[in-house]
Amino acid sequence: MEFNSQIAEFLVRIFLGILFFFQGYDKLFGIKMAAVIRAFQDDANRNHIPRPILVIISYYTSLVELVGGLLLLLGLYTNYSLYLLGSDLLLVCCAFTYMQPMWNMKYVFPRFVLLIFLLMLPESSHHFSLDHFFMNK
After folding, report:
1. Residue 73: closest CA among 59, 85, 90, 61
2. How many domains does the chain have?
3. What is the rounded distance in angstroms from the CA atom of residue 59 to the CA atom of residue 28?
4. HEC readout, 111-130
5. What span, in angstroms and rounded, lies between the C-alpha atoms of 78 and 72?
6. Chain centre distance of CA 111
7. pTM surpassing 0.85?
8. Cβ-contact 89, 53 below 8 angstroms
9. What is the pLDDT of residues 64-119, one digit of tens each?
10. Range of 89's domain?
11. Among candidate residues 71, 119, 112, the one with its CA nearest the CA of residue 94
12. Angle at 28 between CA 23 and CA 30, to 5 degrees
């Protein structure tokens, strides 16, 4: 049973790490931050959100997704990464709900569920990670 929870933690952590890493990577290096900000500018203007706030939130979420996703892939500082990614999801949820109360949660909610799952697993299930490697050295 413990081996199964270790494998489950590994698979979910890698899956979630891939999702967040490539989302952050795409926003920072693919479509670029200027395009991300432009995509939300009209909604932000309509809801009286100042441009500097939009820029800060856009950069924060993109950097947290990139770095947090990479750390999840490595299994390094896993809990701290999950805390930051959880704050990212809450911020995104608040921002989207403020701009459009009936927004589609099909991309955010599954990530939130997987993140909560990882947080609820005991530390002993983090066997296949750099955290485990460094703690047992």
Report:
1. 85
2. 1
3. 8
4. HHHHHHHHHHCCHHHCCCCH
5. 6
6. 8
7. yes
8. no
9. 999 999 999 999 999 999 999 999 999 999 988 888 887 888 889 999 999 999 99
10. 2-135
11. 112
12. 75
